[in-house]
Amino acid sequence: MLDRNQIAQRIAQEVKNGWYVNLGIGIPTLIANYVPEGISVEFQSENGILGMGPFPFEGEEDADLINAGKQTITARPGAAIFDSAISFAMIRGQHINLTVLGAMEVSQNGDIANWKIPGKLVKGMGGAMDLVASAENIIVAMMHTNRKGDSKILKQCTLPLTGVGCVKKVVTNMAVLEVLGDGFRLLERAPGVSVAEIREATAARLVIEGEVPEIAF
Q: What global pTM score does this model have?
């Protein structure tokens, strides 16, 4: 199965030249480390930076330069720093070409739950509510199952929703899935993971068309 960095590396292949991309906290923040050569992309963080670069090397961290997850980052030449009002004007004005978010659950009609587990203390909703309401292209980076082995790819989400019918594609440690509205199309599988294993780990309707290739890097 894929590890967190490999999930990010696979999603980086979805980025197109000239795009503005918002990276959520968690696995999505790793994507900036894997932008393919020859691709120019501007990464935006909701706390107020456009032009994020890869994570800094040890000893080169700047505590004043962080992403939305409070991790230290680097800034590419020409990067801009601004307040959160301008940042969310970019998001709500639909100036972002791609949003990548983590999730606890995704349903087969594109619903996403990623902000709260009932009974557990959370700091707040964060910016995901604005992102899912405004973005037209949302990819989710997540684990396919929880620690108990239960599927997080569901017919219907069981946790409080962040957004409804907004997710286009999901990349997990097992597979690349396209949201169809009434199921998921299996596009690619992790190296060494069989279609049967993915089917068993998926609670949602799974559409399989022909030979499913392995994820290539």
A: 0.94
Q: What total of structural domains would you count in the chain?
A: 1
Residue 50, φ and ψ in degrees, nearest 5: -125, 120
- Is residue 215 in some structural domain? no
Domain enclosing residue 98, as ranges: 4-207
Q: Which two tokens stand for residue 20?
A: 């503005």
In a domain, 217, yes or no: no
Q: Is 46 a catalytic residue?
A: yes
3-state secondary structure of 176: strand
Is residue 32, in this structure, part of any structural domain at all?
A: yes
DSSP structural state of residue 149: S
Catalytic member of 46, 58, 60, 178: 46
Tens of pLDDT along the chain (217 residues)?
Answer: 999 999 999 999 999 999 999 998 889 999 999 999 999 999 999 999 999 998 999 999 999 999 988 899 999 999 999 999 999 999 999 999 999 999 999 999 999 999 988 777 666 677 888 999 999 899 999 999 999 999 999 999 999 999 999 999 999 999 999 999 999 999 999 999 999 999 999 999 999 999 999 999 9
